[in-house]
Design goal:
CATH topology of the largest domain: Transferase(Phosphotransferase), domain 1
Helix content: 25-40%
Strand content: 15-25%
CATH superfamily of the largest domain: Transferase(Phosphotransferase) domain 1
Distance between the termini: 24 Å
Strand order of the largest sheet: 7-1-10-11-9-8
Shape: globular
Mean pLDDT: 77
Number of domains: 4
Length: about 675
Amino acid sequence: MASRRAPLPLLAIVASLCGAAVSQESKFTSSISRSCSTTGNYTDGSQFKKNLEQLLSTLSSAATSNDWFNTSTVGTGPDKVFGLIMCYADSNTTQCLNCLALAPAGITTVCPGSREVNALYDACVLRYSDTHFFGDVVTYDIDASSVMFWTLFQEATEIDTMVQARSRLMEELTKKAGDLPPRLNYYSLPYKDPLLGTDVISGLAQCTRDLAPSECNRCISVYTRRASILFPNNSGGSIKGYNCYLRYKLGALNITMPPQRTPPTPMPRITDSELPPSTPPAPPRLVVGLSIGSASFLVILVLGIFICLFVWRRRNRNKIFEEGDVFDDELAMEDDFEQGTGPKRFRYRDLASATDNFSDERKLGEGGFGSVYRGFLTEQNLEVAIKRVSKGSKQGKKEYISEVRIISRLRHRNLVQLIGWCHAGGELLLVYELMSNGSLDTHLHDAGNILPWSVRYEVILGLGSALLYLHQEWEQCVLHRDIKPSNIMLDASFSTKLGDFGLARLVNHGRGPYTTGLAGTMGYMDPECVVTGRTSVESDIYSFGVVLLEIACGRRPAVAREGEEEEGMIHLVQWVWDSRECGGFIGTADVRLNMEFDEQGLECVMVVGLWCAHPDRNMRPSMKQALDVLRFEAPLPKLPPKMPVATFKPAFDSFISSSQLTGGR
């Protein structure tokens, strides 16, 4: 679900760190910035008000016992309330606890009847709404009316030197804020100001902990760039928003972390003197006889159990092998799963029951090697998607093994989670978490599903984050080899989940292209890979570039030539490059967006898409470089005005046909 923007500015920027004195009580009960919805207000006695009162009464206590942060929900349906509260790390314990207690108690007085409220205080942030907003799309715009400057703030003595030190500080703050579990990074650098008498310059970057790491880093990155503009020569300043917070000053910041949770009290030790009197020892011969007899019995019992398990397992394996459900490589895979380190093995009858015996009414879709069904696991109380590999398909069996061996070892928020597997009853089955919003493909090309630009941009960032993990951050490099919209899933909050690892391969980091069989979907496959049969990280980068262009343009990889004298189809990459040469990217944007998009963001996606799909793989960026540009942390690359000619044979468009570029689902 796309996020809703608050009706008032989301940011309050405070340039002074030593304003006029205020009473301690008003410091916590009066917000420095707030937005209160004014439409659809709740009324006295309504269920929403009851739910809200219950939420606000428990939010502070829950945060106090949960490291000074909490997200909670109360109620169901249209009266459900979502709430969030968090302390800022530059407030001390007393300030934090007072804010946690007083902010929820007084917010309904200043925002009576509002169903959506966002409030910033000196020591904490409080939000509640009738729609889900945890980890939702962040708004980074700064409204001039929300910028406040306090005149009692002192300027730095040596401005140029301070600005250089601040730039280094901001760079360090941006690096790790989102990657640390508390979504917080405090850093300081040596810097002496002779007039102010300071020895360091310090900074704090903090996000609400519901944000994904990439979103936190992106928000802080935007704030650090704005800080140099808003505070050109100030020796301190802060940008405070409903999702993230940035502050710097000359001198040390007082940072307070939540207290460590008290470990459970250990059991008291009992000394020998405290034990009750023991019974007289048995005669030595009797003790020896009992010990030898007990030991012999235990050895025989353990040995018998081991032999029974070994025989049962061997028979079970032989039975599975004879049925043709697995082959030699898969036996080793069973050992990995049975160690309990990954997905669990399901019984066939449980999965058949979960899908009403794989009825057509439960079918979600069908691919080249099988069908996908919606299922419900009663014991786990969980809705799942179950992939049923086609019987007799050798390629399907290979993809089944590749899928479970690779994706079961990967852990990333933007990858589809494999829950379990089953090979029995003549079937190969894979169990995944259910993606309630289906695939990206349906939203890009279905007239009834139109994704707004903000959601599309978040999908792009999520896909890039997944590929960065696969290519550079995991212990081995994972080549996906089939990146396309139908393999990009969207969960209930439209977060990106890359799936279908049936064609994936593991290679060592730093290894160049290697020869493999032709794999993937025409239109998204690197033309060089199609011609030479050699795949690489750059092949995945190419597919990523095509997907970026498809998201922005709303067109499949095959585009009809325009003009009376033009016939046939050209590739989407060629079409966008030609359009860029003729007048820019605006005319290539998806017409269903009705021009409701950020022009800077559109240009960024188009340029990065062309960069990634460059005909020369040596000119393509790494996923890290592409993401830096998409997050506006690096400038746009300079591309040639015309699409370069491919450096391999045959030429780029010689293999393209309309039948090949339909976007194979």
